[in-house]
Amino acid sequence: xxxxxxxxxxxxxxxxxxxxxxxxxxxxxxxxxxxxxxxxxxxxxxxxxxxxxxxxxxxxxxxxxxxxxxxxxxxxxxxxxxxxxxxxxxxxxxxxxxxxxxxxxxxxxxxxx
Amino acid sequence: xxxxxxxxxxxxxxxxxxxxxxxxxxxxxxxxxxxxxxxxxxxxxxxxxxxxxxxxxxxxxxxxxxxxxxxxxxxxxxxxxxxxxxxxxxxxxxxxxxxxxxxxxxxxxx
Lengths: 113, 110
Fold this sequence. Notes:
Structural class of chain B: mainly beta
Shape of chain A: globular
Radius of gyration of chain A: 13 Å
Shape of chain B: globular
Oligomer: heterodimer
Structural class of chain A: mainly beta
Radius of gyration of chain B: 13 Å
Helix content of chain A: under 10%
Number of strands of chain A: 11
Largest sheet of chain B: 6 strands, mixed
Distance between the termini of chain B: 33 Å
Distance between the termini of chain A: 37 Å
Strand content of chain B: over 45%
Order of helices and strands of chain A: EEEEEEEEEEE
């Protein structure tokens, strides 16, 4: 069974540009979560999808961030326009049920110059 | 912090020594989980301890949980250079989202 995959593994962009991160959860996992670790600080929750619906987006930092999960399969996280403070590692995780430990993807390292 | 505190924030030891990291949390829990992040990249789930458990082992890892003190510890025995990483505890909130501690940066010198 394939694990959670994320693309790209690393993205370097300039301030003001747009970047789209992609997450493919494990097949059959309805719950998909986005997290990020900025500047070596703590890992923070961004949002939670159940299938294609946003269940909880309380962690989204501002309206420059837009997450989608078309058809309840893969998810994208777009940052537009990117700012320097957006640099960090963005993690995606999925679970079949909310009570079990999530499976994390390898993360996308975003560098905004 | 959303979660609480982890200490130490940074720990440097020699190969073969034991490493102990502590985590405190603020709310009641069903379980507490420990994760490792290598080289600023992927998160790896290490171990889950349920609220009715006091201690759990997995290989060289030993986790304890004290719900009365709202704290947990992770012990890595006989450390190796490959254990160098950031370690985080996490608790589960509504909807299954994880709330992470601030993390401990462990450096194991060969």
